[in-house]
Each structure stands twice: as structure tokens, then as C-alpha cells.
Write a structure and sequence with these properties.
Elements lengths: L1 E5 L3 H13 L3 E5 L2 H10 L4 E5 L1 E2 L3 E2 H9 L6 E6 L4 H9 L4 E4 L4 H27 L13 H13 L6 E4 L6 H10 L8 E5 L5 H9 E2 L11 E2 L1 H4 L4 E5 L6 H13 L1 E2 L8 E2 L3 E6 L3 H6 L5 H7 L2 E4 L10 H16 L5 E2 L1 H9 L5 H15 L4 E2 L6 H4 L21 H19 L4 H7 L4 H10 L10
Parallel strand pairs: 1-2, 1-3, 3-6, 6-7, 8-15, 8-16, 9-12, 12-15, 17-18
Antiparallel strand pairs: 4-5, 10-11, 13-14
Helix pairs in contact: 2-3, 13-15, 17-18, 18-19
Length: 462
């Protein structure tokens, strides 16, 4: 990742260059706006860190505007000792990623840089998705079923508008991908797409994420921070699992959506925002309203346009196309262009109900392609549950299993797999080929699993 540091003080430029270089970034420095523009025009830059005051007559706002005017604009962090709330808001409105005052904590700045670069990567993915996510291409676009054609027709109609869209569908049906498609087919496509999982955050954190907070609003709030609704600018904020937000937050969100203004946590002032809001849920909000768990007025405010995503079992004719789409991805990632399904394996996939929907199908295809010893994915490549066979007996079979709240089967299986990998490596004295034999795996499959759990090393055995 390439970072441009712009500051008129040599000592600050040298300090930031050392700090960021030690963190593994490529760093270029500029002492004024002219040099900064030359750098931006001559080489790709992922992030700009600029002082607000550059000498007597120049401003970091000039650097910010120049960076944001590029075809592929980098993220921009403004650092200054001369900051005010007004200049912070101005910088954010002009497209800055964030704003931090001097003196700053080194670790806080490094974390801010990391998050800004993560957003940069997300924007790149969005641009790629915009190029490929059209009917007939991309995960959601694959398929010919009537229901998916109806979904795409509605996406095309609502994308250019400012309307709030409520996306409903079971887990794994691709609600976030549909939200991205709406964003990328809209005039906002060049602006950020910022998702937030409402179910993963408690009430206080969720409000801070959405609405922002001022310095000192709560313990740890060392800097003023805009919320996602302001930070998105003219982009889109996607509220996933909207049915899970606490009722107190529902009241505040309703007012925010009606007034198009947010009141940061700890502030008495309201800040306008221009982002579009999309929401998704796997719950029936009409039922939640009747049960008193979701506000009726907020439901009607969100439910301007409802988009229903069908479960995969209701579009079974699309399963072969989706399976082939996922297999093509594995061919490229694994470098095994000859991978293909046997007719029997494809027949089993086509007749399965897929309670986990498209996400489950994708995981099954990835598993089969990764573990296959040959190019043909047969019935044996599929999980036993798809073939109608019982799972292999274990020492725990016959014992009653109690599942508590918050249990995750995927996390449980991942933890178990990691323990076996570590045990095999220990027993084999670190020799990967021997460890693979102990687990009954091919060396390629064993190395894939090591990498998956972060256990691989640079000096892989040939």
C-alpha cells in the first residue's frame, strides 16, 4: 500500500515516514500542494495523510480536493493542530476519511490508517462488482428463474431513485449483494457503500457507529468521530439485520430518517447527511410489529419498497448454473482448469433443499474442489448429508448434545479442525508431508487447511 504524506514541517514528514515504513507501507513525502499534486498525478496512491495548514497560504483542503478529483481517488486523513469542529465537518463533506488533531497517539494513527486502507480495498471490490454484477454475471445475477428475473427488474427500477429499500430473505440468500447491486447501479456508485450489522453491536456502540460521537461522549471517545451516515457522504449505508436493533435506537433512527439529520452521541447539535439508506432482515417485520418488538412507524418508513429474495429451494433450476459459477471461481483460485462435476454429483446438488441457501452451496463447492484428488467431483466429493448417508460414527455419538444460545457450528468445526492440524504437526515434528499422512489428507489439501487457519509458513515443503 502506498501512502503520501503532505506536511510543510520536515520533522513531521520524517517522523511519519519512519512510523509508516516500519508498519510495512510504502511512503512518499511532499512539502506542499504542488509536489503533492505531482505525486498524485504520476503514481498510484492508496492513502493521503495531509496537514491542514501548509505554510502561510496553502491548505490541506487543496490536497484533499485534488486527491478526491482523481479517477480512482485515495482515502485522505487530515491531521492538524489548528482544527475546529467547523473545519472537521468541512473536510468530511469534501470526502476525507477522517480527521485527527495534534498531538496524536501513534497507535491510534496506525489504526486509523489501517481502517482507511481497508475502506480503500472495499471500494476497489465495489468497482469490480459494478463491472461484473449484471444479470447473467456474479453470484446473484446467475440464474434464469422467474423469481430472480423479477428481483433484477425491481433492482433496475429502484437503483436510480433515492427511495429506502427493505430487502427481505432467509440467511444466505444474498441480501448484502443485492444491496451492493442497487448501490452500484445508482448514481452513487462512485461513493462509499458502508454496511453495518445491527445484530452484532449493542445499543451504545450501534448509535455511535451510525450517528457518530463527540470527544468525551463516553470512556474511550478521545476524538470526535462522524457516524456512518455522515461518513458515507453521497453514498449508501446498508443496515443489515435491521429487525435486531433495540427499541430505544429505533426511535432515534426513525427521527434521523425523517429529518435527514443526525445528532452525534454527546452533542446537542444536529448534522445533516445525504446518504441513502438500505435495510435488510431475515425476519417478518409485520410479525415483529404485531408482537411489539418493532415500531410500526419505523417499519412503514423503511418499507417504502420491499424486495423479496427467494430461497434457493424455490429456484432449484438455478442450482446447476450457480454450482458451475462457484466451480469456475475455484478453477481460477486453485489453478485446476479441468475441475468438473460428474452427472451424479450435479443431480444430487440439484435435488437438495439447501437450508443455508446460496452461501451453503458456495461452501460445498469450495470444499469439494479443495479436497478433490482428481478433476472430477463425484458423489464422494459431497458431504454425507447431501448423499443421504449418516455422518461417520464418533466417540460422542449416542450422547445427548445440548446447544446453548450463541452456539456456532462453523466455529465449533473450525476449532476442532485447527486442533487436529496442530496435533498432527506436533506429532510429525513439523514435517508437513508426514502430518498430512497422519490426517489422511493430500499435501495440497493439508497446506490449504494450514493457510485457512493461519498456520502456514513461508518455507513450505516441495
Amino acid at each position: 500500500m502506498h501512502i503520501l504524506v503532505v506536511d510543510d514541517e520536515l520533522s513531521m514528514r520524517e517522523f511519519l515516514e519512519v512510523l509508516l515504513t516500519r508498519s510495512g507501507y510504502q511512503v512518499t513525502c511532499a512539502e506542499n500542494v504542488r509536489v503533492a499534486r505531482e505525486v498524485l498525478g504520476s503514481k498510484p496512491v492508496d492513502l493521503v495523510i495531509t496537514d491542514m495548514k501548509l505554510g502561510a497560504s496553502q491548505s490541506g483542503m487543496d490536497v484533499l480536493r485534488g486527491a478526491r478529483a482523481l479517477a480512482e481517488p485515495p482515502e485522505v486523513i487530515v491531521i492538524t493542530a489548528f482544527g475546529t469542529a467547523a473545519s472537521a465537518v468541512e473536510a468530511m463533506r469534501e470526502g476525507a476519511y477522517d480527521y485527527i488533531g495534534k498531538p496524536f497517539d501513534n497507535e491510534e494513527l496506525k489504526l486509523l490508517v489501517q481502517k482507511a486502507l481497508e475502506k480503500r480495498e472495499l471500494r476497489r471490490e465495489n468497482v469490480s462488482l459494478r463491472e461484473h454484477l449484471v444479470p447473467g454475471a456474479g453470484v446473484i445475477g446467475v440464474g434464469r428463474s422467474e423469481r430472480m428475473r423479477a428481483v433484477w427488474n425491481l433492482v433496475e427500477k429502484v437503483a436510480p431513485t433515492r427511495s429506502t429499500v427493505l430487502i427481505h430473505g432467509e440467511s444466505g440468500t444474498g441480501k448484502e449483494l443485492i444491496a451492493k447491486a442497487i448501490h452500484l447501479k445508482s448514481p452513487r456508485a462512485g461513493q462509499p457503500f458502508l454496511p453495518v450489522n445491527c445484530a452484532a453491536l449493542n445499543e451504545g456502540v450501534l448509535e455511535s457507529e451510525l450517528f457518530g460521537h463527540v470527544k468525551g461522549a463516553f470512556t474511550g471517545a478521545t476524538q470526535e468521530r462522524p457516524g456512518l451516515l455522515v461518513h458515507a457522504g453521497e453514498g449508501t449505508v446498508f443496515l443489515d439485520e435491521i429487525g435486531e436493533i433495540p427499541q430505544a435506537t429505533q426511535v432515534k433512527l426513525l427521527r434521523v430518517l425523517q429529518e435527514k439529520k443526525v445528532k452525534p452521541v454527546g452533542s446537542a447539535a444536529e448534522v445533516p447527511f445525504n446518504a441513502r439508506v438500505l435495510a435488510a432482515t431475515n425476519k417478518r417485520l409485520e410479525t415483529e410489529v404485531k408482537a411489539g418488538r418493532f415500531r410500526e412507524d419505523l417499519f412503514y418508513r423503511l418499507n417504502v419498497i420491499t424486495l423479496e429474495l427467494p430461497p434457493l429451494r424455490d429456484r432449484a433450476g438455478d442450482i446447476p448454473l450457480l454450482a458451475e459459477h462457484f466451480l469456475e471461481r475455484q478453477r481460477k483460485e486453485l489453478g485446476r482448469l479441468g475441475l468438473r462435476f460428474s452427472p451424479e454429483a450435479m443431480a444430487v446438488l440439484s435435488s437438495y433443499a439447501f437450508p443455508g441457501n446460496v452461501r451453503q452451496l458456495e461452501n460445498i463447492v469450495e470444499r469439494a474442489a479443495t479436497l478433490a484428488d482428481g478433476d472430477v467431483l463425484t458423489l464422494a466429493s459431497l458431504p454425507p448429508s447431501l448423499r443421504g448417508e449418516p455422518e461417520r460414527p464418533s466417540a460422542e455419538q449416542g450422547q445427548q448434545v445440548t446447544l446453548g444460545s450463541g452456539f456456532s457450528l462453523e466455529r465449533h468445526l473450525d476449532d476442532a479442525e485447527r486442533r487436529y492440524l496442530v496435533a498432527a504437526m506436533t506429532q510429525a515434528g513439523g514435517v508437513k508431508t508426514r502430518a498430512a499422512d497422519l490426517l489422511g489428507l493430500t499435501f495440497r489439501s493439508f497446506r490449504y487447511r494450514l493457510a485457512k487457519h493461519g498456520l502456514s509458513e513461508q518455507d513450505d515443503e516441495p
